[in-house]
């Protein structure tokens, strides 16, 4: 052994230390796992599993890894290149104070941010209660009947409202009338989304144009912004009748803080209301993430997009939450789904709902009244200074006619540390000032100083304390109550708030308690050092439309991350704009569509999709105006090349692309993937490789090298952004060189298409797919930290250990369960799988009556979140252990699964009846197990502590099995009336 003094300093510095923190198994564990599988070495295992034909030609060129401390210092240097000015830009993004109790106990708390989408209702009651609060808050403030549990951003919510209207109204028109004073990013995304669907956007650039288009009657929907992008409030009370007379829908994009003081759209006939909740405690963060909302009239509910949380009952008849009306969603209805949304913005919706809980209706009103008062005082002072204040009616913003002084005044403001709104799209002769919760008297005085002529005295500070009325016209003032439910009126002290937040997170099972072995979802470590930078003010307090120079740090972060992801994927160009995997798919398909059109082949619209595909694939294809043709898979889970050949030939003239997932959602490395890509290329189509499974590829194979033309990544899987209970995500879209010009642009913020600056041929621009140019910018530091600390070797090791761990689970469970689609590789216990393995329970259902769902629920009694249930094959469980789980946790999971197999054997043997055993009655609540009556065929201890190890720390499901059907039949999606909780 070396003496301490002989150990080289470079080794003591241990720059690659983080990899060992990220990876669960150590060298000894690895040796044990390999021997259980029967593989000679990790390399030998990978070579047996991953086809040699796709192996990377060279290692990824990434910077050498650094420690957590060094990475934080380096990233701080990047962050400091951002310049945080006071932003009065508005345009849908506002300063806000995140209450400390929410910041620390939700945004910075892994119990909230590492949770998964609440598919398993029984272990998700806490976050679903918070989401029901969100839905109730949105319904109350907008005056609408039903609201969903978040949208990706306001602009995409408006676009989804457009398609919801198209599906729901009687009008057969293909035209939507859109007020020109909506936020520019909303207009741009509406245009992007309308084009492939053949919808025509009729822009109304004045009140006269609006009136004449409405009176013309040829439209299926009309959209307005409240207040308008320049801050005005218009009286819209007469518009609903005109729009309804045309059998069209009235869509209002509304600011929620304004709605605490202004008549809600539901009270003047709106059919759909959208907007965002960013200013409810969520930092601006260069545009995202934050939760948008969509609310609608009751008749539209079965057609609405996005996740919806509803109230149902559990097996004991008690109220319980679960996801409602899932039959609308992409994972069930695929290309007929109401939208492609899968990951949404749950963590941010939770924060916004908690902001409303903490402040309550009176607190929110006080904030809004303060903002409105300061705005009125600001306007009055500016008028005294002789400034031409444009809008007489408004809430929190004023627009000033500044003519040829516009540039000079904006520059003066910037020099004084303030950003004002420019209206370049309207000729650049106005400036806007939007106040918010953070605005103060000092801000108003500083603004006056910017507009005062040299030597001109400033308005008297006494103005602040005069009884100046807000700019909201009396006829438009809200009189109706909102947020009357006790939850919004009882947690206003910090002690109560802290305990309320804790009581909800205690109900849920997140990664901070146990492994979440969800196949296709990659619930790996979200390291604390990766999370820390997201709340740094230099990242959190930047307005997305601040001048580019102030966002230099974000630009650098974007460049570096895109470069690294390009190394990982083998693609030439990447855009980080899409704010979920589904949006990346959509952007990728638009790139393919744009490329075909630019070559005069716009008719190519057939999208081939294997039957194993994730539901977002066909749903995205439909949104991109494509027709889905399903391709069969063979008995090994590979795409059936004979069927593919036939479909390629049949649709050759119209073939747009194929969408495959690699390795497939069956957990299979298709050995023929290169031939598959060639076949599609030979017929003029392009190959979309869904990159959600990049966890099994990084460092080992690159889709851009083996035949893919486009991929999206799920940074919220492979690159460590936490799932947040169902979002935020980031879905970068990656393309080969000739598709770079067709990456999403963002003209509203002056950004051209493509990361390389390549311009698409005239007439073939792909517009913005998200409201903000960098989508969910604020979570990008997480992936940056991960790559920076792991380096090329660490990332490759992560992939290999993910594959090793899945094979270890398969090896341990092979004697107890059928492993579906195993590779049948001789000598490998478990047969060889990719990074996930599918346990087939269908035969057990026949022999015992026990279903995959029963096993999933029984795992809760063992302290685990279930693996993915019945996807991609009904009656199976798909296990993805990831590289981050230690061997001890993998064994704990395997022990649980083996014990459950023993329980199934007892049912098979007739020891326990098919209708009364620990599996069909799972999960067991503490109340059920400790009840005075116990009439079951098994013992209480068998119900609660099936393994002795559980006695050391037991997770109790707060509710029994939730009844989904009851919930959909008796749909209720807002806070449970207190009376429902009364003791019997
Ligand atoms: C294979 C696959 N593709 C696409 C997606 C969609 O990603 P997102 O949920 O971020 O929209 C998922 C998500 O689970 C997936 O597993």
UniProtKB/TrEMBL annotation:
GO terms for biological process, alphabetical: glycine decarboxylation via glycine cleavage system
Documented EC number(s): 1.4.4.2
Modified positions (N6-(pyridoxal phosphate)lysine) in chain numbering: 717
Residue ranges of every copy of the Glycine cleavage system P-protein N-terminal domain listed in the record: 21-451, 468-741
Protein's recorded name: Glycine dehydrogenase (decarboxylating)
Record's function text: The glycine cleavage system catalyzes the degradation of glycine. The P protein binds the alpha-amino group of glycine through its pyridoxal phosphate cofactor; CO(2) is released and the remaining methylamine moiety is then transferred to the lipoamide cofactor of the H protein.
Names of required cofactors: pyridoxal 5'-phosphate
Gene Ontology molecular functions: glycine binding; glycine dehydrogenase (decarboxylating) activity; pyridoxal phosphate binding
Pfam families, alphabetized: GcvP2_C (PF21478), GDC-P (PF02347)
Key words, A-Z: Oxidoreductase, Pyridoxal phosphate
Subunit annotation: The glycine cleavage system is composed of four proteins: P, T, L and H.
Domain spans labelled Glycine dehydrogenase C-terminal: 798-924
Transmembrane regions listed in the UniProt entry: none
Catalyzed chemical reaction(s): N(6)-[(R)-lipoyl]-L-lysyl-[glycine-cleavage complex H protein] + glycine + H(+) = N(6)-[(R)-S(8)-aminomethyldihydrolipoyl]-L-lysyl-[glycine-cleavage complex H protein] + CO2
Family according to the record: Belongs to the GcvP family.
Gene3D superfamilies for this protein: Aspartate Aminotransferase, domain 1, Type I PLP-dependent aspartate aminotransferase-like (Major domain)
């Amino acid at each position: 052994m070396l003496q301490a003094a002989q150990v080289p300093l470079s080794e003591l510095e241990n720059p690659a230390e983080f990899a060992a923190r990220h990876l669960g198994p150590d060298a000894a564990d690895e040796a044990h796992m390999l021997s259980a599988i029967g593989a000679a070495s990790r390399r030998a295992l990978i070579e047996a599993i991953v086809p040699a034909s796709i192996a990377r030609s060279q290692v990824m060129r990434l910077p050498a890894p650094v420690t957590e401390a060094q990475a934080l210092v380096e990233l701080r240097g990047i962050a400091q290149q951002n310049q945080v000015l006071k932003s009065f830009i508005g345009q849908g993004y506002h300063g806000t104070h995140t209450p400390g109790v929410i910041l620390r106990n939700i945004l910075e708390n892994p119990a909230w941010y590492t949770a998964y989408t609440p598919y398993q209702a029984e272990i998700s009651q806490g976050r679903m209660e918070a989401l029901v609060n969100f839905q109730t808050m949105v319904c109350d403030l907008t005056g609408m009947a039903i609201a969903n549990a978040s949208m990706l951003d306001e602009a995409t919510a408006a676009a989804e409202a457009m398609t919801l209207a198209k599906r729901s109204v009687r009008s057969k028109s293909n035209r939507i009338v859109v007020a020109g004073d909506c936020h520019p990013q909303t207009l741009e995304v509406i245009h992007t989304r309308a084009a492939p669907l053949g919808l025509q956007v009729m822009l109304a650039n004045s009140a006269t144009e609006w009136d004449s288009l409405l009176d013309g009657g040829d439209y299926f929907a009309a959209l307005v912004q409240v207040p308008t992008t320049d801050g005005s409030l218009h009286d819209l009370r007469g518009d609903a009748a005109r729009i309804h007379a045309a059998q069209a829908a009235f869509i209002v994009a509304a600011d929620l803080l304004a709605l605490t003081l202004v008549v809600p759209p539901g009270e003047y006939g709106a059919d759909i209301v959208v907007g965002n909740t960013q200013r409810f405690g969520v930092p601006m963060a260069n545009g995202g993430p934050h939760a948008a909302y969509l609310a609608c009239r009751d008749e539209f509910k079965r057609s609405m997009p996005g996740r919806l949380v509803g109230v149902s009952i559990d097996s004991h008849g008690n109220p319980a939450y679960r996801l409602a009306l899932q039959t609308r969603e992409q994972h069930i209805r695929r290309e007929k789904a109401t939208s492609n949304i899968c990951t949404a913005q749950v963590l941010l919706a939770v924060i916004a709902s908690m902001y409303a809980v903490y402040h309550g209706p009176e607190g929110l009103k006080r904030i809004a009244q303060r903002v409105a008062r300061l705005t009125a005082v600001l306007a009055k002072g500016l008028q005294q200074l002789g400034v031409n204040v444009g809008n007489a009616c408004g809430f929190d913003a004023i627009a000033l006619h500044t003519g040829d002084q516009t540039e000079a005044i904006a520059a003066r403001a910037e020099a004084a540390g303030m950003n004002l709104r420019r209206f370049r799209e309207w000729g650049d002769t106005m400036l806007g000032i939007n106040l918010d919760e953070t605005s103060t008297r000092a801000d108003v005085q500083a603004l006056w100083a910017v507009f005062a002529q040299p030597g001109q005295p400033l308005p008297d500070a006494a103005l602040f304390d005069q009884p100046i009325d807000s700019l909201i016209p009396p006829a438009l003032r809200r009189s109706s109550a909102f947020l009357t439910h006790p939850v919004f009126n009882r947690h206003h002290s910090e002690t109560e708030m802290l305990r309320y937040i804790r009581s909800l997170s205690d109900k849920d099972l997140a990664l901070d308690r146990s492994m979440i072995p969800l196949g296709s979802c990659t619930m790996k470590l979200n390291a604390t050092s990766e999370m820390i930078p997201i709340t740094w003010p230099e990242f959190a307090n930047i307005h997305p439309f601040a001048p580019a120079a102030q966002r230099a740090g974000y630009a650098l972060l974007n460049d570096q991350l895109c470069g690294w992801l390009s190394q990982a994927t083998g693609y030439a160009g990447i855009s980080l704009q899409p704010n979920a995997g589904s949006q990346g798919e959509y952007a990728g398909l638009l790139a393919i569509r744009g490329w075909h059109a630019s070559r005069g082949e716009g008719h190519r619209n057939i999208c081939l999709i294997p039957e194993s595909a994730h539901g977002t694939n066909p749903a995205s294809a439909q949104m991109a105006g494509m027709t889905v043709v399903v391709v069969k898979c063979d008995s090994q889970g590979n795409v059936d090349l004979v069927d593919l050949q036939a479909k390629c030939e049949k649709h050759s003239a119209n073939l747009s692309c194929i969408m495959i997932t690699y390795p497939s959602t069956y957990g299979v490395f298709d050995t023929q993937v290169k031939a598959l890509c060639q076949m599609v290329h030979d017929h003029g189509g392009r190959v979309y490789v869904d990159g959600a499974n990049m966890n099994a590829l990084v460092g080992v194979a690159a889709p851009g090298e083996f035949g893919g033309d486009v991929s999206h990544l799920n940074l919220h899987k492979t690159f460590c952004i936490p799932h947040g209970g169902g979002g935020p995500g980031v879905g970068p879209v990656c393309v080969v060189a000739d598709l770079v010009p067709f990456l999403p642009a963002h003209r509203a913020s002056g950004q051209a298409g493509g990361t390389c600056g390549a311009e698409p041929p005239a007439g073939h621009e792909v517009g913005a797919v998200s409201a903000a140019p960098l989508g969910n910018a604020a979570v990008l530091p997480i992936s940056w930290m991960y790559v920076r600390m792991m380096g090329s070797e660490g990332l490759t090791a992560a992939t290999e250990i993910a594959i090793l761990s899945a094979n270890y689970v398969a090896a341990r469970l092979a004697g107890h369960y059928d492993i579906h689609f195993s590779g049948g590789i001789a000598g490998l216990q478990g047969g060889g799988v990719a990074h996930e393995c599918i346990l087939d329970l269908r035969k057990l259902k026949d022999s015992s009556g026990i279903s995959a769902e029963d096993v999933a629920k029984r795992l809760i009694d063992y302290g685990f979140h279930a693996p993915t249930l019945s996807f991609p094959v009904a009656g199976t469980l798909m296990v993805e252990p990831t590289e981050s789980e230690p061997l001890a946790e993998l064994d704990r999971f395997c022990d649980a699964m083996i014990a459950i197999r023993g329980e199934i054997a007892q049912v098979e043997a007739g020891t326990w009846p098919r209708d009364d055993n620990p599996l069909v009655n799972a999960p067991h609540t503490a109340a059920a197990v400790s009840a005075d009556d116990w009439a079951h065929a098994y013992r209480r201890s068998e119900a609660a502590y099936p393994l002795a190890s559980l006695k050391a720390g037991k997770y109790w499901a707060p509710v029994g099995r939730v009844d989904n059907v009851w919930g959909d039949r008796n749909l209720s999606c807002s806070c449970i009336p207190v009376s429902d909780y009364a003791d019997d």
